[in-house]
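Q: What does the assembled structure look like for these inputs?
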Amino acid sequence: MTRMTAAQSPYSPADRPRLGLRERKKIKTREAIRAATYALVKEQGYDATTIEQIAERAEVSPSTVFRYFPTKEDIVLTDEYDPVMLAELRARPEDEPWMDSVRHVMRRTLDLSDREDPEVLRLRAHLGVQVPAIRSRYFESMTETGRLLREALAERTGRDPESLEVRVSAMALIGGMMEVSMYWAENGFEGELRDLMERALDVMEHGLGPENPSGPRHRP
Amino acid sequence: MTRMTAAQSPYSPADRPRLGLRERKKIKTREAIRAATYALVKEQGYDATTIEQIAERAEVSPSTVFRYFPTKEDIVLTDEYDPVMLAELRARPEDEPWMDSVRHVMRRTLDLSDREDPEVLRLRAHLGVQVPAIRSRYFESMTETGRLLREALAERTGRDPESLEVRVSAMALIGGMMEVSMYWAENGFEGELRDLMERALDVMEHGLGPENPSGPRHRP
DNA sequence: CCATGAAATGAGAGTAACTATCAAAACAGG
DNA sequence: CCTGTTTTGATAGTTACTCTCATTTCATGG
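A:
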């Protein structure tokens, strides 16, 4: 008997009837590869999972896996939130302070991701801590997000998006956000990522400040 | 005839007579591998350079190359400045503002690196822009620097180095510094890296500010 | 319903980074 | 010079990833 790939994805396949059969199959294949990868990684860990195993469980050939994702890390890390973030950032009122916009958009994006698949963010953060190759690639994908950030920041402040100042501002934000993800994973996913992000943005906006009443104290 | 590996390193081999022959040979091998890699990468590019070629030019076996460096990227990116930075950071007066200490130490470290080998920083930044694998690994090595930064920052401010706030502050700095390096390389290494770093630290300390008189203007 | 062109897939061979193992060579110390 | 320890080299193996080409699968017009 043929085993189902068991895609308990939030979308039912009939949701998109306007797409041709070809397009629908491509989407299904993509999701099957990702689902197979997530499952195998949870079972055996990232390094122990080979492309062959992924292909087998997703019921495609190894060639096809590479046709859909350029690297093994990308299977885990790829998503489509960047355009969403940029759109939301542009939709914010012109006169809103930049960091407030970022706060707002980050919260919305995190909520969205959490609603679609609450496991994914955790798995990524976890692998980002455990697997160097993933961490590296994670950073790489964050720099792409950084490029969007500097576009939006440049529009908002009327500066050149390629200026050193804008680029550094955007990338410093990205660095801080990356650290939030690592912190979250290293501390057993305690607390809401959304709240940690908020605290991080506060620090990046105002600096550490002389004292932080709610923060932890130096170890004794 | 046997070709010399031509290590025009600032240290002459006789500089360290207190080390045994074994230790001296190891240092020489390490430098030979690095020199061979730099030369080959300049000639052919990073991807086209194989470990075998590196081994051949350095006159060692491929096994030995991997014994000295865990990955190909590490041959290009490894250095020993982190401990120096930490020491200098700790040597700064207790009451100096944190960002001033960072500014000071960064300038000293960049100068030191520039004096030892002015090409290396450029090559790294260049490859960081061109080669994704290098860029990723570059980031990875920066996060290690970030760990030092948060130690120093925690000591200075009396906070827990593992607190979210300290970690985010340190990593945001790293993100900004990384971007400086990329900016420098993408703009043909125009201007002194030291000066760009200074501008970056200003932005990270005070934010973009309402106007930047000396900065470039939005493209027309 | 079928024929034709285009797109997607699978199979195979190949490259290169990296690992593990083990025997030979180079050194250190007596 | 002899002995024990380090360091090296050779070899075989794994796996991510690339390239090529024949086969299959879908789209479309008659």
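Residues 20-22, 25, 50-52, 62, 66, 70-72 of chain B lie near DNA strand C (CB under 10 Å from a C1').
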